[in-house]
Structure to design on (419 residues):
């Protein structure tokens, strides 16, 4: 597959991924909706970014231990990744302190942080289940077809 | 014991045991380590599922309540898909043909169970109110499923070789899930009305997008840190070229392993 065709394929796949979302958006607007959650989506978007960044950094920090095994255990990357994760926590607390910018229906900053973490676990569960099902479904449709015979031409 | 300590003991500790157990079971090189990891993950799951009873006052225990509700249908869906996939034409590890019917049955029951949780009386509810995390899980799951199936359908058609039939099946599945979302946006369930679903659907969209952005940033930072560290390392020391004696030794090893006749 040449490079130009590969770029087109990736774009087409991304568009196919987004197609249902666009259709739903159009249908929602047609039904007189104003994108449902409206401005409430912004705090959710911001909280999702900060929480997934912080938790993702912590998971990758754990991953660095495996990297360290093959590199005579350097401390610099570990400190770097730990600083990146701590920065995520600090930015989250600072932004949550800015009044209603990122606060949802929770009484305190602490409650919002705990809610964000639990919310991320639930979202991650939904994402993993959807991923597993779509992969399994793709595999099922392939194995459901009759086996193919490849006829090799005589050399 | 104060409420914070109770939540830490009965919710957050089991929640931490699940990933720790999974990590141990995957990374352990001995069977006892693997089993211990599985045991820890199982205990963690049990602790989470029972958290609505152990720490009823903690708002986080609603997630444990949801987990208890979705474990059954999710296990049925996953095992159904597994049985269908591996009872088909796979070259190794093929399951008996009868498992296909069992898989289809498990998948349908799991699917109807989930649908019943939205439109019928099976909705996860705590103290007469719909579990707030159910309104996170269900729209996120449906939204991502239709998008992933649509992406997979096109991938099969564009990248796969003569996979048009399979691609059409995937388009159909994606369309079916999309139809389900549209129905949920228009038809009220017993406990979740259409407006509430629409509200949470777009929150789920913002959530998935935010998660993707946040994870991408963390991966970029991770890559940057590794890159900077590797760049700061000194050049490895050069070693002396092999001697004639070493060349002769290598040549003898290569000669001992080369050869073979016409029939080999």
């Amino acid at each position: 597959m040449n490079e130009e065709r590969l770029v087109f394929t990736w774009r087409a796949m991304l568009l196919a991924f987004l197609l249902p979302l666009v259709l739903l958006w159009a249908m929602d607007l047609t039904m007189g909706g104003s994108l449902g959650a409206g401005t409430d989506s912004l705090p959710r978007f911001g909280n999702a970014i900060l929480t997934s960044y912080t938790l993702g950094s912590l998971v990758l920090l754990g991953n660095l231990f495996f990297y360290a095994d093959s590199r005579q255990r350097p401390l610099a990357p570990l400190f770097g990744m730990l600083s990146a994760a701590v920065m995520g926590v600090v930015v989250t607390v600072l932004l949550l302190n800015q009044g209603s910018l990122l606060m949802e229906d929770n009484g305190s900053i602490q409650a919002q942080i705990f809610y964000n973490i639990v919310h991320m676990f639930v979202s991650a569960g939904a994402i993993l289940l959807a991923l597993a099902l779509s992969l399994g479904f793709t595999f099922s449709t392939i194995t459901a077809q009759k086996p193919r015979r490849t006829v090799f031409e005589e050399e | 014991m104060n409420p914070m300590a109770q939540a830490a003991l009965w919710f957050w500790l089991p929640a931490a045991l699940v990933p720790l157990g999974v990590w141990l079971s995957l990374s352990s090189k001995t069977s006892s380590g693997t089993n211990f990891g599985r045991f820890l993950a199982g205990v963690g799951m049990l602790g989470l599922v029972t958290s609505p009873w152990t720490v009823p006052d903690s708002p986080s225990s609603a997630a444990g309540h949801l987990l208890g509700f979705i474990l059954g249908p999710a296990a049925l869906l996953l095992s159904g898909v597994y049985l269908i996939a591996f009872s088909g034409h796979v070259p190794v590890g093929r399951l008996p043909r009868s498992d296909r019917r069992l898989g289809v049955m498990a998948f349908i029951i799991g699917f109807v169970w989930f649908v019943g949780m939205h439109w019928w009386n099976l909705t996860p509810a705590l103290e007469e109110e719909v579990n707030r995390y159910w309104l996170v899980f269900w729209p996120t799951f449906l939204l991502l499923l239709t998008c992933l199936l649509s992406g997979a359908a096109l991938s099969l058609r564009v990248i796969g070789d003569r996979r048009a039939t399979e691609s059409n099946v995937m388009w159909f599945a994606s369309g079916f899930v999309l139809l389900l979302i549209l129905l949920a946006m228009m038809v009220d369930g017993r406990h979740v009305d259409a407006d509430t679903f629409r509200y949470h659907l777009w929150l789920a969209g913002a959530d998935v997008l935010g998660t993707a952005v946040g994870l991408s940033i963390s991966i970029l930072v991770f890559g940057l840190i590794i890159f900077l560290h590797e760049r700061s390392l000194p050049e490895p020391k050069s070693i002396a070229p092999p001697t004639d004696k070493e060349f002769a030794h290598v040549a003898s090893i290569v000669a001992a392993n080369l050869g073979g006749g016409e029939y080999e």
Notes: The mean pLDDT of chain B is 86. Residues 51 and 61 of chain B are 5 Å apart (CA to CA).
